[in-house]
């Protein structure tokens, strides 16, 4: 009823598994959904207005992806909690290191931030609004199109000038402070090859790890992109009977919150596994000298890393409030399903 | 083939973006951007603007625009001699005052023009059952409150908010400009509201706030339905002048409200010699009352607080008769009627119940004077006005789909019967909650116009408002019955069980159960509590339901107060 009628056939098509469908997880996964465009091509071919049709098509996809009461609602609701964690953690470390009063709203300002698996741009937009110079990458061309279109409608996001040669700042009178935002259809590995290591102050990959085939190699590439003293944030799902029950049995099979097949239980990663990965992970000191620095996590007591090195926090969906809640520090049981993880690269 | 598609997509999007950039640029001459556009410069809209203006995060990252059709420079320059008062006066609860203090606006309120309410007396016009409720009885977490609420002219408050707004550079106030139409800018599949103003400006809003009163054009744009009805009742307001209270009595800090079957009449003290009136009554009576000479209205008001209900009904009939006959009742005729009526009820002309008493002036006041407001002497010219009263509640406070990026506050979201003096307070609480919601979202990089960002506001206010509104609505209905006392009491008896729940809810709302630092001193509390005891008294008086039900009600009331005082 609230949806424009023109999008209804599309929505219907989306309900079919074979049609183009930016699934919550597919959108974040690292394989391209582009070839699925085929089914849709038929109507586009032979027309002289291919471009306009395609834009209309992606606009519709974008409005579905960004429909906060629709299929991606859970993801939208999760975003404030992710941002809260990122902000709190950066603030905590900054305050630890300087005596000056650090203002809450400025912690991200001017930082180079990478959002891996940016999907429709949910996290990237928030990061850019907080003043970070943000690069969102996704292996799905369609997601990059959705994200670019959506951001271009928001005058406080400087997407066009960053992505294009033509500068478009101050398009509207009245826009205060623009966040710089770039989207790119690429993989972490490609980006690393092009940009080289230590390129970002902050690297995020939210709800991505549980979809990749080789998590060790993926973690390694992401970690390499972090500057010394920089930060790495991720969110994923723990592997245990509870998380199976909630995310696969209940959400996929029973309630169909998310498309069946979205998750693979064996790909879930436990906090302890990530912690032990970073207990041995050392960044190369420099590319010239083939030696490595100290491990990212040096001090662990009872399985909990030192607060200034790494932290795990559970996030729990509270159905009666309709929102996700960031669990207080040290509430171990809350990390049994969805959780956020932060680790810092030693300064060397 | 696959590869072609991929490349084509990337190129298309990029080209499209550059084209749309050009398009934006081309149209930039008349489309402005604003992050928060507030339509309506009433108390709710101004309070929201003030709250946003006092948030640092908002100041640094946002542009806020308030648009008001009326002339706000008149409000800003508003001034009256100390002994004259505007007829729109609202009781500002302690919670609302605290909010206004927090945003730095209360210091601009001219406190010498405000009146504290230290006690409330409410009684049933039919049975005479009465309860008093004073600030002294209220204690919250060991802290006493000195007043239940503070009567403040709406203009005094609006002027304060405007002065506060002058300080903040992040809020642009546009007045004498009307929002003529609102359209949707549906580019790239995400609808943004475009406001077309009467001065030719076009503003694209990240978030459009409807603080535009009952007939809210923003609500219409958002496609939000409103549920409700008009009461068959008008509220007459006027500024009343009277002699100061005698030195043997408490000063003029007591609010009085009598429930008549035609509606409640309230006397709200604003200075030692002036008070404001809100008389809710049937529309035809309201029309007749507005048409009579001021001296007739004075006597009617005095009688309405004092004369037994049967005689009030008679006076109403006489008034209507004369009004319809084209010869409005004269002062002499009315006094004669009242004298006759008082005499037949054996009301002595020197007693506190006499409307025409000459005794109240000097010396020792007659016994029971504290139970009635001071005798009104005159009415400030030009202050008699009336408003239709209605109950309405929007189905939702946040727009969706085509109406995305919209939110409602104040009377645009809800209107309520004035008997509990809550209308404006609910609007201020909305403004406070929405400002906090915007602040929280912005400080996490959120898009403040998004549905997800606005949900906390809706969650904080919708049911709180609904509880208070339905409690007030029930009170109105309970007392507007014209049935004979016993029949009435019986029907009341059946209602009691239901009343308990809503009243409890209403009490919690006023106590600010959602906020720890809120004090419970609001007229709403007083009224809710009074009604409950009133109901109990009427029941036992009528001896219909008897001791059992009455006991239930009274212990329920005690329970409520215990709960209330144990809250921090
Ligand atoms: C008789 C009576 C007694 C009351 N007593 C009390 C009381 O004791 N305590 C209490 O708390 N409340 C009381 N109220 C309620 C209180 O007055 C209202 O709740 C309050 O005024 C609502 O404020 P608002 O800002 O939401 O709306 P409004 O005051 O109605 O303001 C809306 C504004 O929007 C503007 N506007 C509308 N459309 C447009 C447009 N298209 N373009 C530009 N501007 C536009 C209008 O010009 C107006 O200024 C009483 C109400 C009545 C009728």
UniProtKB/TrEMBL annotation, chain A:
GO terms for biological process: methylation. Pathway: Cofactor biosynthesis; ubiquinone biosynthesis. Its cofactor is Mg(2+). It is found in: Mitochondrion inner membrane. Its EC number is 2.1.1.64, 2.1.1.-, 2.1.1.114. It holds the Pfam family Methyltransf_23. GO terms for molecular function: 3-demethylubiquinol 3-O-methyltransferase activity; metal ion binding; polyprenyldihydroxybenzoate methyltransferase activity. Signal peptide: none annotated. Mg(2+) binds at residues 207, 210-211. S-adenosyl-L-methionine binds at residues 82, 117, 138, 206. It catalyses: a 3-demethylubiquinone + S-adenosyl-L-methionine = a ubiquinone + S-adenosyl-L-homocysteine; a 3-demethylubiquinol + S-adenosyl-L-methionine = a ubiquinol + S-adenosyl-L-homocysteine + H(+); a 3,4-dihydroxy-5-(all-trans-polyprenyl)benzoate + S-adenosyl-L-methionine = a 4-hydroxy-3-methoxy-5-(all-trans-polyprenyl)benzoate + S-adenosyl-L-homocysteine + H(+). InterPro entries: SAM-dependent_MTases_sf, UbiG_MeTrfase. Transmembrane segments: none annotated. It is a peripheral membrane protein. Its main location: mitochondrion. It comes from the Eukaryota. Residues 1-25 are annotated as: Disordered. Keywords: Magnesium, Membrane, Metal-binding, Methyltransferase, Mitochondrion, Mitochondrion inner membrane, S-adenosyl-L-methionine, Transferase, Ubiquinone, Ubiquinone biosynthesis. GO terms for cellular component: extrinsic component of mitochondrial inner membrane. Component of a multi-subunit COQ enzyme complex, composed of at least COQ3, COQ4, COQ5, COQ6, COQ7 and COQ9. Belongs to the class I-like SAM-binding methyltransferase superfamily. UbiG/COQ3 family. O-methyltransferase required for two non-consecutive steps during ubiquinone biosynthesis. Catalyzes the 2 O-methylation of 3,4-dihydroxy-5-(all-trans-polyprenyl)benzoic acid into 4-hydroxy-3-methoxy-5-(all-trans-polyprenyl)benzoic acid. Also catalyzes the last step of ubiquinone biosynthesis by mediating methylation of 3-demethylubiquinone into ubiquinone. Also able to mediate the methylation of 3-demethylubiquinol into ubiquinol. This is Ubiquinone biosynthesis O-methyltransferase, mitochondrial. It comes from Cristinia sonorae. The lineage of its organism: Eukaryota, Fungi, Dikarya, Basidiomycota, Agaricomycotina.
Automatic annotation (TrEMBL), chain B:
It holds the Pfam family FAD_binding_3. GO terms for molecular function: 2-methoxy-6-polyprenolphenol 4-hydroxylase activity; 4-hydroxy-3-all-trans-polyprenylbenzoate oxygenase activity; FAD binding; oxidoreductase activity, acting on paired donors, with incorporation or reduction of molecular oxygen, reduced flavin or flavoprotein as one donor, and incorporation of one atom of oxygen. Residues 34-310, 397-437 form the FAD-binding domain. Pathway: Cofactor biosynthesis; ubiquinone biosynthesis. It catalyses: a 4-hydroxy-3-(all-trans-polyprenyl)benzoate + 2 reduced [2Fe-2S]-[ferredoxin] + O2 + 2 H(+) = a 3,4-dihydroxy-5-(all-trans-polyprenyl)benzoate + 2 oxidized [2Fe-2S]-[ferredoxin] + H2O; a 2-methoxy-6-(all-trans-polyprenyl)phenol + 2 reduced [2Fe-2S]-[ferredoxin] + O2 + 2 H(+) = a 2-methoxy-6-(all-trans-polyprenyl)benzene-1,4-diol + 2 oxidized [2Fe-2S]-[ferredoxin] + H2O. PROSITE patterns: UBIH. Its main location: mitochondrion. Keywords: FAD, Flavoprotein, Membrane, Mitochondrion, Mitochondrion inner membrane, Monooxygenase, Oxidoreductase, Ubiquinone, Ubiquinone biosynthesis. The keyword S-adenosyl-L-methionine does not apply. Its cofactor is FAD. Belongs to the UbiH/COQ6 family. NCBIfam families: Ubi-OHases (TIGR01988). Component of a multi-subunit COQ enzyme complex, composed of at least COQ3, COQ4, COQ5, COQ6, COQ7 and COQ9. FAD-dependent monooxygenase required for two non-consecutive steps during ubiquinone biosynthesis. Required for the C5-ring hydroxylation during ubiquinone biosynthesis by catalyzing the hydroxylation of 4-hydroxy-3-(all-trans-polyprenyl)benzoic acid to 3,4-dihydroxy-5-(all-trans-polyprenyl)benzoic acid. Also acts downstream of coq4, for the C1-hydroxylation during ubiquinone biosynthesis by catalyzing the hydroxylation of 2-methoxy-6-(all-trans-polyprenyl)phenol to 2-methoxy-6-(all-trans-polyprenyl)benzene-1,4-diol. PANTHER family: UBIQUINONE BIOSYNTHESIS MONOOXYGENASE COQ6, MITOCHONDRIAL. This is Ubiquinone biosynthesis monooxygenase COQ6, mitochondrial. It comes from Cristinia sonorae. The gene is COQ6.
């Amino acid at each position: 009823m609230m949806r424009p009628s023109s999008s209804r056939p599309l929505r219907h098509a989306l309900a079919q598994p074979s049609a183009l469908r930016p699934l919550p997880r597919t959108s974040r996964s690292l394989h391209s959904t582009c070839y699925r465009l085929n089914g849709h091509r038929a109507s586009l071919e032979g027309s002289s207005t291919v471009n306009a049709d395609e834009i209309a098509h992606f606009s519709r996809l974008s409005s579905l992806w960004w429909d906060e009461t629709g299929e991606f609602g859970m993801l939208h609701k999760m975003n404030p909690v992710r941002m809260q964690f990122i902000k709190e953690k950066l603030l905590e470390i900054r305050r630890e290191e300087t005596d000056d009063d650090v203002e809450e709203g400025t912690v991200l300002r001017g930082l180079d931030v990478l959002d891996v698996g940016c999907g429709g741009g949910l996290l990237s937009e928030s990061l850019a609004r907080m003043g970070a110079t943000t690069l969102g990458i996704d292996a799905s061309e369609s997601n990059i199109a959705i994200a670019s279109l959506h951001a271009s409608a928001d005058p406080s996001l400087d997407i066009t000038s960053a992505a294009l040669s033509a500068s478009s700042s101050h398009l509207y009178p009245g826009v205060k402070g623009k966040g710089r935002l770039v989207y790119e259809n690429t993989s972490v590995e490609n980006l690393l090859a092009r940009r080289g290591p230590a390129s970002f102050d902050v690297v995020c990959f939210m709800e991505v790890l549980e979809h990749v085939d080789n998590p060790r190699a993926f973690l390694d590439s992401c970690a390499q992109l972090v500057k010394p003293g920089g930060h790495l944030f991720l969110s994923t799902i723990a592997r245990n009977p509870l998380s199976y029950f909630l995310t696969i049995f209940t959400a996929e099979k029973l309630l169909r919150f998310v498309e069946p097949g979205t998750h693979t239980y064996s790909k879930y990663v436990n906090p302890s596994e990530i912690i032990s990965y970073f207990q041995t992970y050392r960044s190369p000191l420099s590319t010239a000298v083939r030696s490595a620095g100290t491990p990212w996590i040096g001090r662990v007591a009872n399985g909990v890393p030192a607060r200034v090195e790494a932290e795990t926090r559970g996030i729990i969906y509270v159905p009666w409030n309709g929102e996700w809640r960031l669990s207080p520090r040290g509430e171990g049981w809350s990390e049994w399903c969805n959780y956020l993880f932060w680790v810092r690269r030693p300064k060397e | 083939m696959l590869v072609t598609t991929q490349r084509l997509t990337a190129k298309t999007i990029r080209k499209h973006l550059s084209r749309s950039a050009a398009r934006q640029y081309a149209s930039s001459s008349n489309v402005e951007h604003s992050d928060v556009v507030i339509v309506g410069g009433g108390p709710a809209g101004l309070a929201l603007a003030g709250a946003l203006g006092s948030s640092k995060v908002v100041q640094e990252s946002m542009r806020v625009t308030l648009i008001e059709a009326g002339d706000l420079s008149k409000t800003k320059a508003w001034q009256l001699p100390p002994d004259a008062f505007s007829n729109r006066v609202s009781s500002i609860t302690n919670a609302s005052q605290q909010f206004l203090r927090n945003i730095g606006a209360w210091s601009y309120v001219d406190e010498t023009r405000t009146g504290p309410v230290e006690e409330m007396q409410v009684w049933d016009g039919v049975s005479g059952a009465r309860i008093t409720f004073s600030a002294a009885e209220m204690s919250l977490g060991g802290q006493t409150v000195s007043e239940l609420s503070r009567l403040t002219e709406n203009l005094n408050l609006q002027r304060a908010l405007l002065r506060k707004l002058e300080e903040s550079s992040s809020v642009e106030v546009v007045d004498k400009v009307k929002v003529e139409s609102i359209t949707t800018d549906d580019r790239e599949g995400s609808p943004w509201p475009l406001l077309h103003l009467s001065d030719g400006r076009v503003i694209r809003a990240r978030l459009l706030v409807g603080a535009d009163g009952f007939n809210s054009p923003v609500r219409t744009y958002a496609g939000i339905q409103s549920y409700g009805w008009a009461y068959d009742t008008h509220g007459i307001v006027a500024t009343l002048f009277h002699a100061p209270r005698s030195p043997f009595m408490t000063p003029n800090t007591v609010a009085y409200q009598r429930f008549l079957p035609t509606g409640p009449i309230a006397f709200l003290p604003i200075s030692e010699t002036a008070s404001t009136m809100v008389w809710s009554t049937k529309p035809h009576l309201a029309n007749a009352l507005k048409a009579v000479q001021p001296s007739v209205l004075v006597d009617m008001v005095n009688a309405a607080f004092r004369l037994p209900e049967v005689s009030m009904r008679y006076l109403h009939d006489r008034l209507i008769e004369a009004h319809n006959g084209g010869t409005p009742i004269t002062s002499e005729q009315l006094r004669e009627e009242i004298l006759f009526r008082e005499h037949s009820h054996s009301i002595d002309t020197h007693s506190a119940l006499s409307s025409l008493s000459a005794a109240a002036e000097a010396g020792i006041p007659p016994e029971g004077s504290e139970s009635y407001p001071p005798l009104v002497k005159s009415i400030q010219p030009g202050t008699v006005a009336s408003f239709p009263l209605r109950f309405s509640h929007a189905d939702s406070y946040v727009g969706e789909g085509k109406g995305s990026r919209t939110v409602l506050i104040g009377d645009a979201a809800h209107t309520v019967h004035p008997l509990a003096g809550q209308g404006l307070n609910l609007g201020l609480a909305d403004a406070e909650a929405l400002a906090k919601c915007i602040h929280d979202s912005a400080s996490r990089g959120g898009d403040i116009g998004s549905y997800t960002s606005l949900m906390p506001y809706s969650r904080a206010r919708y049911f709180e408002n609904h509880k208070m509104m339905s409690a007030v609505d029930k009170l109105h209905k309970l007392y507007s019955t014209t049935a004979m006392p016993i029949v009435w009491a019986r029907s009341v008896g059946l209602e009691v069980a239901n009343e308990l729940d809503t009243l409890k809810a209403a009490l919690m709302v006023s106590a600010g159960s959602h906020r720890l630092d809120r004090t419970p001193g609001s007229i709403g509390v007083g009224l809710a509590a009074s009604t409950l005891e009133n109901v109990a008294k009427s029941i036992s008086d009528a001896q219909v339901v008897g001791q059992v039900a009455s006991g239930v009600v009274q212990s329920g009331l005690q329970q409520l107060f215990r709960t209330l005082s144990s809250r921090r």
